Structures
1.
Amino acid sequence: MLGRIHSFESFGTVDGPGIRFVTFMQGCPLRCRYCHNPDTWEVNSSVAYELTPEALWTETARYRNFIANGGVTVTGGEPLMQAPFVREYFRLCRENGVHTALDTSGIYCNPLALSVLDYTDLALLDIKTINLELHPRLTGMPGDNPRRFLDELEAKGIPVWIRHVVVPGLTDNDADLNALGLYLSKYHTVEKIEVLPYHTLGAFKYEKMGISYSLEGVAPLSDEALSRAKEILGKYKKCD
């Protein structure tokens, strides 16, 4: 079994609790308009390389002392595009007493994808928008599966941190933010919401790759708008 991997981060501090060994998987079916990693979209991209789960664990184990109070996080791209690989890697981590976190959009909600949850200690679930009409225009795909995926996490009792990118003119309106908070309030396993401000740090990649950047001219989210989003969502769940 081989996984297509984009890159590693040896000392990650923003993708789960503690210091983490973060693996960025190659490939994603979504085309989020604000994505800052378009180089992870194509699974067979020449920028990626292949590893077995065992080889990835061997690499991870080199940093075991540093991640002892953290763990590993698999992100992307979309890691569940390569679910069997992630499941086996997480199994090896769990076998060796290492905490596992899955950073996913929940866009895959089939038995193969859900099998990864057998060895998942924490889910970082990226809710692009709670607005089902906006979701296809924002990501290129319907928004039903992320809702089903959250239901599965709730049923399995897996702790969840929600991630939500606030984009000016798209996901920053009070109505959708309140709707998201209200929707999430019924889930006991959702521990908190991480509000992520839209930025343009990855825009240069689009030009380099010859891809049109659809949010050209949209300014990064202001501090005031970020505070407003946190204030609204914070009425329903703990908010960072």
Note: The CA atoms of residues 145 and 180 lie 15 Å apart.
2.
Amino acid sequence: MVEAASGLSASVLLLNRLYMAVRVISARRAFTLLYRDQAEVVSVDEGAYLAYDFADWVEVSQAKARFEPEKYDWIRTVRFQIAVPKIVRMLGYDKVPQSTVKLNRRNLFARDGNRCQYCGKRFPTTDLSLDHIVPRSQGGTNSWENIVCACIRCNVKKGGRTPEQAHMKLIQRPVRPRRSPVLTIKLSDSKYASWKQFLDFAYWNVELR
């Protein structure tokens, strides 16, 4: 098989058997589930849900390649090309999704938009660090409300002090997000518009892996 690396790393929304979103997975994982008949493609077409197994989706992909190729990421093999589905549904899994947003580097960078919370400038992830507003040496906690993105220069300037002690000011007060910050970024892309109807942030959040 000839694989398109970017296509295999594309994001796919995983639903449980009851059509509740569970997490976001890679296209590689989604195709593994489809090929093993553990999941089906869910396609949203003008408000209607259409379900396809792997073989049917290969056929449908040929039509999509002709009429709307720009709407999908693609995987090309020696014999055919197949569209990366936006949504897949597990056929034998009905557990309720996790209801909290994980406190991790990925979600913190996404919440702050890769912006240093002291100087306000945006940086690539490699040039950002995480800063405890109240240093742990002064009793600060590992929490959404006490950790922010900081560029290396600002982090060094602040050192082991609070912003007040270092005569620095936060550009905004950090808060615990109600939904996955990374997912919020995904939903701003029209490519993932079909995800929205499966997501109810008032009750639960999607875990990204």
Note: The chain has two domains: 5-98+181-208, 105-158.
3.
Amino acid sequence: MSATVTATVYTSHVPAIGVAIDLDKTDEPYWQPLFAGYEPSRQWMADNTPDVIILVYNDHATAFGLDVIPTFAIGTGARFPIADEGWGPRPVPEVEGHPVLAAHIAQSVIQQDFDLTIVNEMAVDHGLTVPLSLLFGQPEAWPCPVIPFAVNVVQYPVPSGRRCLALGRAIRRALDAYDEPLRVQVWGTGGMSHQLQGPRAGLINREFDSQFLDRLIADPTGLSEMPHVDYVREAGSEGIELVMWLIARGTMADLAGGPAPTVRRRFYHVPASNTAVGHLVLT
């Protein structure tokens, strides 16, 4: 008896997507193709709702400022309020945590020599709430508990892809040792190619994004060796968020000697607020 990773989900977490949902703009010509692309996944998610989600995201100077910057932080609290990022909290439900599983993961992963920061109280921003909205819509309550797992990809130095993939494998081992048969999904969020400032603001690299998705599916170990400079050069300064997808990918069975994953959904769309949006569901 153990917790089982039933699927991994990957998606961009563009803040303007949340605004479009909150202001009921999803059917406008600019946004309709993007939201239509997520409809098959929303139906699949309704039919395959997990018992708990581990959601890997980056905090955007909301819970963590430049005074304290944890490389990896796990939310172990019972509830996480919605952050005010400058224009009021999004009108979405508070996030219910899973303190028992989160504490188990922290214990196991730290004993595997990963230094996690344990966070009992924090507000969660669009990095976490936009993916939930894309896959679950606008419910009165999120359909399952969510364990926030924050990664620093804002202030250098940031973790390597290799370290992120290894962390995912450590999380899987933690789940294997959990003594309750929970169905767990692990979500990797952020990306894809985009840059928000400087001369390359608005950068989109479709070829890089497509190759990244190909390699994430078929060659995650090789992909994990890609250096930071390649992310920045090819995907823009904010493209480094993609290393977080490797944490989710590291939890899958093929990296523990099991079968290769099945692609349930793959979607790519440009633009969404000067950003390339990518999405995968793997089982």
Note: The chain has a mean pLDDT of 97.
4.
Amino acid sequence: MKNGKKGITASILGASGYSGAMAFRILLRHPHVDVENVFASSGAGQHVHDLFPALRGLTNKCYEDYSEEKVENSDIIFLALPAEHAMDIVPGLLKSGKRVIDLSGDFRLKDVDLYSQYYGATHRAIDLVADACYGLPEINRSSIASADLLSNPGCYPTSAIIPLAPLLKNGLIETDDICISSLSGVTGAGRKTTIDYSFAEVDGSVKAYRVGDHQHIPEIESILSDYSQKSVKVSFVPHLLPTVSGIYSTIFVRPKGEFRREAIEEVYRLAYGEEPFVRYHGTEIPQLKGVLGSNFIDFGWKYDAHSGKLILFSAIDNLIKGAAGQAVQNMNIMCGFQEKEGLIV
């Protein structure tokens, strides 16, 4: 119970990472959620505010080592763990009647061979993969409401799928000529201490990485293919940006047949006109600072008559709409709360 209203109890695994900490921060202000436990093996015994000073005075909780017994009273469990960890924990949680929101990539791909190829590991919970619900509310809201295992989308895929999905579903663009160039702040790599993500390495520089073999390639392709009922192929190039957070994606597509501005405007209006966290800019180009600290995705487009390409632009906060905020948005749908609860202040 919280504020005298019917609510739920939640626990977070991986709460010392950037996404887990952001989920905790959002849930602290949620009127219908009490956070029971925050787990982080590397920080066990430390106060949350020791690792995240901004939370001082907002919580006295300490990180704990995880055990299934400790979440006995939790209704919903957030897993903000690196890939390959959730698959070992989810089966026991589901068996005990918990609802699970997994922020990793362990259950995003229905093809476990693709998981092995792009994540470099053999999937150890194959029997649960088919039942996992892909949690992008803008295209999958009805299935999310009844999900017990919710696979939260990746940050890059969120920035790409939302602007692309209506165009593909309505046959307005070619399916095999899609190029995505995305830039992400360093928190997208997780709370690592490797030299590649140190201040001295990233400040004042931009570089591409994992070109052609990034784990979000099959996620983008499979979700767009399933949604549009067309085989979709993308070229995806991620870049490391010298900022803390945010993702900015520029997407190049080729219109199918004659370019029609009215058709593009219409499909976006029908797809997203009532969406609480989608802000469609039309032909105005969005900027990254417009979404930082929020659960919004801003996107717009321009038509390049010289090349005949339609160019889409999108911006999200990778830790919020790209991770923790979207996870809470999904929780709200799953639990019957107002979708904006805890996410707009």
Note: The chain is about 30% helix and 20% strand.
